[in-house]
Inverse folding.
């Protein structure tokens, strides 16, 4: 073996057996070390890093320490504590690199498009229409298979009386109702025949919410000979069906007469209250044929001045079983004081089967003919008592020196007049909704 010294010279000689054995052992240890390092690189790196840290932490000042990790390089000028990736207290786990997961083509999401079906419009031309039975009806209009008269008769709306029917559509509606009657002249008997059939939508004149109407018949200007119908108790749509004869009355004298029909409310203990009237000059009528007339009642001549109007709101809560009444305001009230003003307030009586149950009243508005109240009152009423319940609402003029004067009032309930009954029915048909309407005050 050739041996070279440090100066580059060659040295002759041979190695001893001990030197050879030591060299072989060193080579074996080096091979084992390399094999161990190849099998556990991470563990070797961790061990060497700990040894390197301990060695340099004791010899090198902390402010000049440079620490290297696999992920972070930190340079500090003060003592720092670095948490290493692995700790000796935790068990060692070898982490193998993971391969990216490849999705199977069978599991890939597909976008599915749905097509909305087109809307088809129906054409009337494609619908078969059967005209069987229509040609015969339309060809002969005089004898239809189902006439209007037969339909009215089946519904109970057929005319009760024969003769020509005329309706007064031009007259102004005063809320007093209408009356149906018939008039013609019998030439053989020289008699004027007047038939009183019925009246509808009459106003209530009594506290019970009804009236006791009857009809008074006159041939003006003669006021001595008068005829009257029977009294219909507690009726707002009375039916009389009564016939009256003015016998031995020449036809030529009828041209100067006026047929006067007056509907009154019978009062047993006081004067009868007029409801409305109709004046019909006989010269304007065709008395040769029986003609049925519907006429709107107008206020009677000489009647008292209007009393005013009141605005009332009703609200019914069926679940809670209560009715809320709001007295909103009045307008055009009648003057009751010498000064031409009034001191009005409104009083409400809850009536059940004709008996007074509860009373409420508003504040007084002094010297005012158009007062605004806006006061509400709650009345507890169950459903089973609604049909026997009514409210008497009165507008009263307060008098400090004497008795208070009644201006007028109304009755709201299921058996009151047509306007009041309509207001009541609207309240029941629209629960939990306030319904406000104007009402004309009447004498109570």
């Amino acid at each position: 073996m050739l041996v070279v010294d440090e100066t580059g010279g060659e040295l002759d000689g041979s190695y001893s057996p001990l030197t050879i054995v030591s060299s072989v052992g060193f080579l074996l240890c080096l091979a084992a070390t390399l094999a161990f390092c190849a099998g556990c690189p991470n563990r070797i790196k961790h061990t060497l890093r700990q040894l390197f840290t301990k060695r340099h932490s004791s010899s090198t000042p902390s402010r000049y320490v440079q620490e290297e990790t696999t992920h972070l390089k930190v340079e500090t000028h003060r003592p720092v504590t670095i948490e290493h990736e692995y700790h000796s207290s935790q068990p060692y786990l070898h982490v193998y690199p993971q391969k990216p997961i490849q999705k199977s083509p069978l599991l890939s999401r597909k976008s599915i498009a749905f097509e909305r079906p087109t809307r088809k419009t129906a054409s009337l031309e494609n619908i078969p229409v059967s005209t069987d039975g229509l040609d015969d009806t339309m060809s002969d209009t005089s004898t239809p298979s189902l006439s209007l008269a037969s339909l009215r008769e089946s519904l109970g709306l057929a005319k009760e009386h024969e003769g020509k029917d005329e309706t007064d559509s031009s007259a102004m509606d005063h809320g007093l109702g209408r009356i149906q009657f018939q008039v013609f002249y019998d030439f053989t008997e020289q008699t004027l025949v007047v038939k009183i059939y019925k009246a509808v939508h009459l106003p209530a004149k009594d506290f019970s919410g009804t009236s006791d109407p009857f009809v008074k018949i006159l041939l003006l200007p003669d006021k001595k000979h008068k005829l009257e119908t029977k009294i219909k108790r507690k009726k707002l749509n009375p039916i009389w069906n009564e016939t009256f004869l003015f016998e031995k009355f020449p036809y030529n004298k009828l041209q100067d007469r006026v047929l006067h029909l007056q509907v009154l409310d019978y009062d047993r203990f006081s004067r009868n209250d007029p409801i409305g009237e109709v004046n019909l000059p006989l010269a304007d009528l065709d008395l040769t044929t029986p003609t049925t007339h519907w006429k709107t009642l107008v206020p009677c001549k000489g009647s008292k001045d209007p009393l005013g109007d009141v605005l009332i709101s009703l609200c019914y809560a069926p679940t809670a079983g209560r009715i809320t009444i709001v007295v909103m305001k009045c307008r055009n009230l009648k003057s009751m004081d010498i000064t031409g003003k009034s001191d009005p307030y409104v009083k409400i009586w809850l009536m059940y089967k004709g008996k007074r149950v509860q009373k409420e009243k508003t504040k007084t508005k002094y010297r005012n003919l158009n007062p605004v109240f806006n006061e509400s009152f709650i009345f507890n009423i169950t459903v089973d008592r609604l049909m026997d319940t009514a409210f008497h609402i009165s507008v009263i003029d307060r008098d400090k020196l004497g008795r208070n004067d009644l201006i007028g009032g109304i009755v709201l309930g299921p058996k009151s007049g047509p306007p009041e009954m309509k207001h009541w029915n609207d309240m029941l048909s629209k629960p939990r909704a306030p319904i406000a309407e104007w009402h004309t005050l009447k004498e109570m």
The helical segments are 17-39, 41-59, 134-139, 148-154, 418-429. The mean pLDDT is 74. DSSP finds five helices and 21 strands in the chain.
